[in-house]
Structure prediction request, 295 residues.
Amino acid sequence: MSLIPFDDRDGFIWMDGKIIPWRDAKIHVLTHGLHYGSCVFEGERAYNGRIFKSREHAERFHKSGELLGFKVPYSIDEIIKAKEEVLRKNNIVNGYFRPVAWRGSEMMAVAAQKSKIHVAIAAWDWPAMFNKEVVERGVKLQMSQWTRPAPNMAPFASKAAGLYMICTLSKHKAESEGFNDAVMLDYRGYIAEATGANLFFVYNGELHTPTPDCFLDGITRRTVMDLARKRGIKVVERHIMPEEMKNASETFLTGSAAEVTPIGQIGDQKFPVGPITKQLMTDYSALVTSAQMAA
Prediction:
């Protein structure tokens, strides 16, 4: 199947306060966000024509900018309204949203405090991250050679573009070796996350997940924890060592893109797609498609 490049598509993008044709959404090659990573973004999903947890994502978008030392020049309500405009203009029913904010091209040096902050919002059809066959057997992960940095080394609570460089390296290596993704450890050697999703493990009927003290505390992560508690499943946030993975009876990923995706293998260790994973997949699907929660 041939790829459709993202710079040559039909549709519309919201950019700096107005809707423009998709192909007209351009920036200069000497943009600070491109050279120095002064860029933040969100990944969101729409289901049945409604954006799921749009306000929570808009709030994190603002917070991410603050952690990188800049203010998103549109209010949270304005961002929410702009996303709705993009949804309607592109006739999105089930799709993916990408709000992004970055420092512009007024200054080209490490310091660029006088650069303009630009904002864009794009959206496109995207029914699922993995195909049905992959989900039914669970995705395959390998261990990454890269680790998440310590809290005093990077603004880990920001969804900042630069923090994903080692994720891209990890995922490219995994895919080249026949895996779907990679498990990343943190700077202390504890399990952290996958390259773009959070991790969960089931031990004796309890749901265990790494403490997000040096990586992003995902919105989907928190949503799934709430769903588990409503089912009477005990949720434990703690530091998890890699050698503990072999004792898990089930394991899965969570994320706006990944939703709830079973893990069938990590390295040589294989896992069944178990009952807790299946239940949370069902509960999450019901939640995101419900009218009262998907707006």
Remarks:
- The mean pLDDT is 95.
- Residues 132-288 form a domain with the D-amino Acid Aminotransferase; Chain A, domain 2 fold (CATH 3.20.10.10).
- The longest strand covers residues 139-148.
